[in-house]
Amino acid sequence: MKFTQKGIASAFVIYALLGGMSGFATAETTLPNIEVKAPAGIYELDLTHAVLLWSVKHNGISNYTARFNDIEATLKLDPTKIEDSSVEVVIDPTSVETGYRGNYKATHADSGFETWDEEVARSPKFLNGDNYSTIVFKSTKVMPTGPTTADVTGNLEFLGVTKPVTLKATFNGEIEKHPFRDVPTVAFAAEGVFDRTEFGQPKGSVGSEITIRFDGEFILAPTVK
Fold first, then answer.
1. Would you say residue 181 has pLDDT above 60?
2. Taking the domains of the chain in order of start, what are their residue ranges?
3. Between 44 and 6, where is the model more confident?
4. What is the pTM of this model?
5. How confident is the model over 149-156, as a mean pLDDT?
6. For residue 29, what pLDDT band results from cuts at 50, 70 and 90?
7. Could you name the CATH architecture of 33-92+134-220?
8. CA distances from 158 to 19, 21, 194 (A)
């Protein structure tokens, strides 16, 4: 039997696709290991050491940034297999804080709202908090991407619409005992972008994309007996 150079190359490709080369299979299936020493369990967000910011392009020239003050987050941590961990976040849209410094009533007498924060929180053009009392993110997949990073994909429920959103998460560290709670504590940051118009918000003087930035500490919750 005569082997041509083209035939050998073809056989090599078929052999690799069939898994004959273990190196190919390992490269495709092995996930990076995120080393976490904290025990497995349910961790709750320490709101005094957490921040959730959002920003949009304003007039195409700046990043207009605000924060939510009332957030709850629960982390189900599996330190031996991070991809089996999960997180759920619940946000009160009426807790938005913009840091508006002007005399809002004087400049927006016809708005029907007392403050800019109130308009952003309650107006149907913005967060519509009177009709949708929560914004919820529930993770569906955690995919490690490096020694301290992972892609966290989940369903975002916003303005009555649910769509998948992926956050870039970073494990920032851990301590064996929180100085005031005396329990293990872990810290994570996350950032992601989504199109607000896909959730029904109108286009306007601000950009369609919203950037979310989170940074916070999670404390091991007491075991319920």
1. yes
2. 1-30, 33-92+134-220
3. 44
4. 0.83
5. 98
6. low
7. Beta Barrel (2.40)
8. 43, 46, 11
